[in-house]
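Changelog-adjacent note: as of this version, every example in the card shows the full chain rather than a window. The one below runs 191 residues end to end.
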Amino acid sequence: GGTGKLAGDVTGTGAVKLALGNQAVWEGKSSNENTEATVNSTWKNTGETKLKKLGGSGTVDMTQSGEGKTEIKEYNGTLPLVYAHENANPVNMKGNDFHIGKTAEGSKVRMLTDNAGLNTSSDKAADKNQVSAALNALAGKLYYEAYAKGEKNLKGRATIAEGLTASSATLKMADMDFREANGQGYVKETN
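Full-length structure tokens:
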């Protein structure tokens, strides 16, 4: 199979099934909540999105998604979600909040940002605290809504990497948990 790029948004109300394989790229968003997407390559989310289902093992690039919310009714995958942050204030993550309704058993999410403005190798308390705060801010972009209703199928990790690609070397990582009240992600402790 070849590579391809789909640039544009999914609108309307009819059922849409989008499958991205090989090195295909979708650059866009969906206002059609009957859309099902399988991402085994790259989705560059460009704004507020509603999907019926999301799955796959590719990458979701949230760096161009702006403010607002991406809503996924059902999730079944192992996707990294890539976020940028302000270099001068690394706890200010850029991009939509990512809301997952319910998940299939064994599903995973890796929240990822780069190390710009962060000293991940320092032993100084101020630097360690800033890294921890950045990981928490990154984890806080993810909401696992069914968690508040007792579902515990999703595993999450927050990661600071050398760059903004899923294949970048990991510098700091922390396992995530979710708040009982609203399912918002947070980090347990920094590794």
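Structural remarks: Residues 125-139 form the longest helix (15 residues).
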